[in-house]
Design brief:
Distance between the termini: 42 Å
Number of helices: 7
Oligomer: single chain
Strand content: 15-25%
Structural class: alpha/beta
Order of helices and strands: HEEEHEHEHEHEHHE
Length: about 180
């Protein structure tokens, strides 16, 4: 037994399999590159391209999870409130097709302290300048530490590479874990 490791921590690792093709691999952090466009919504931001991508990811996960007779808790978080609200509306409208999933949607800040099987993180922003808000290390820590089985980051890769902390994290994702929407068909 590892020094300092409790029995419930070992059990959690033993149950880390993922009943989703494309996600069941040793490294469970994925990037889904989306060419969506950010749009201002009041004092917040939204990105319909990322909403569409998240819905496609959820449909893919639901299909695989259901075929394995499983049920997963899925967290969908967004860096911005307007995006979280639009995601919630879109996911709620499709709730019957996502039956084997228990999906909760929130902002990164509100998700702190929660844990789910699979976390999907919508970054929203696509600008060319550095964005301290989405690159904030505390927000990234929350986003990167809430998933038990897999983390899927949805965003424009070119934009994310410009964010210092996020760009560094991106370099750690194996090449085979960069997904496209075609991979989820």
């Amino acid at each position: 037994r590892d020094r300092g490791q409790r029995d419930d921590e070992k059990l959690a690792d033993a149950e880390r399999d993922v009943a989703v093709r494309r996600l069941d691999r040793p490294n469970r952090v994925f990037w889904l590159d989306v060419a969506g466009q950010e749009e201002p919504v009041g004092f917040s931001w939204a990105n319909q391209g990322e909403i569409d991508a998240v819905l496609k990811v959820l449909a893919h996960i639901a299909q695989d999870v259901q075929s394995h007779g499983r049920e997963y808790k899925i967290g969908v978080i967004a860096a911005y409130d307007a995006q979280a609200k639009r995601l919630h509306e879109s996911i709620t409208a499709r709730a019957t097709s996502l039956k084997p999933l228990k999906v909760s949607v929130d902002t990164v800040d509100a998700f702190q302290g929660k844990q789910v099987d699979i976390l999907i993180y919508s970054l929203v922003r696509t600008g060319t300048q550095a964005n301290a808000f989405i690159g904030d290390r505390r927000r990234l820590n929350v986003a990167f530490s809430r998933a038990k089985r897999a983390l899927i980051i949805v965003g424009q890769r070119r934009s994310a590479e410009r964010q210092h902390s996020l760009g560094r994290a991106l370099k750690l994702i194996p090449a085979e874990n960069f997904l496209s929407l075609e991979d989820l068909s």
